Amino acid sequence: MSEIRDVVIIGSGPAGYTAALYTARAQLRPLLFGSSIFVGGSLTTTTEVENFPGFPDGVNGPVLMENMRAQAEKFGAEMIDDDIVSVDLTGDIKLLTDSAGTIHRAKTVIIATGSGYRKLGLPNEEKLSGRGVSWCATCDGFFFKDRDIVVVGGGDTAMEEATFLTRFAKSVTVVHRRSTLRASKVMQDRAFSDDKISFAFDSEIAEIKGTGGMLGGVVLRDVLTGATRDLDVTGLFIAIGHDPRTELFTGQVELDGEGYIQVDSPSTRTNLPGVFAAGDVVDHTYRQAITAAGTGAAAALDAERYLAARGAAQTEPATAAVPV
């Protein structure tokens, strides 16, 4: 049988790496599964991060994630860039199967799988990410001073993004497929009262144009008539929602109506003993690197205290996991 780890962390990014750092410093020898594709989380697709404390000149997103990973590894965290494809978290010993079919056993599990931005699915969307196309106004708005910007979406997030962007932009056009917004009245009123914000209702983005490797504008299509028109903008912010990455845990960990993991706030405890969740996978509201890191630290402390209360901290030497 494979060894039983004190802590296994599923997911990288600020929450996962911070949880790994804290549990490693507590000498719990954490094992972290980062992913075979999305190692480091969504910040690896961000060019400059200017709102993470400790970096007055900003920091490159992938560099920040590499440094967080290296810091956790320095204290003994073990990292595997592979996916967990199935789990059984209901017993005292949690069973996690990786893509090679190896079963890993753990006394505690920290889930930090994050969430993904919903995308339009258009050509150039991925290619121009970080080059005019963004999913985070808080992260990237500063780089669009005195620019004409379009925001896609009709909910609270879109209105919040549009209002925030008026601090920097020359103009903001909100594009929404319906004739009315879905946002709360207070958010609608705030957007409607802002002179910099205009609206393109019953419209969708039909094309994202690239010019010299940067966003060169978009084509709007009227969903009622099919008519198209060009919109000359250099910033496109997509705010049509997030999808938490929780498919792996459905039927075991309690989820809310939108698929986010429910925790016993302010702790990170889930409905299953020994299972904790941190970062964007539990966060409807903030979805920032620093808040994810904070809950990653909390999850590590919760796991450490859970193990201490059960007298369960591992003392026997490690043995290798074996394929099953």
Poorly predicted tracts of residues: 314-324
Specify the CATH architecture of the largest domain: 3-Layer(bba) Sandwich
How many beta-strand segments?
19
Broad shape = elongated
Rg over CA atoms = 22 Å
Helix content: 10-25%
CATH superfamily of the largest domain: FAD/NAD(P)-binding domain
Secondary-structure class: alpha/beta
Give a quick account of the main beta sheet: strands, pairing sense, barrel closure: 7 strands, mixed
Please identify the top-level CATH class of the largest domain: Alpha Beta
Percent range for β-strand residues? 25-35%
What do the pLDDT scores average to?
Answer: 90
The name of the CATH topology of the largest domain is: FAD/NAD(P)-binding domain
What separation lies between the terminal Cα atoms?
A: 9 Å
Could you give the order of the helices and strands?
EHEEEHEEEEEEHEHEHEEEEEEEH
How many discrete structural domains?
2
User: What is the count of helical runs?
Assistant: 6
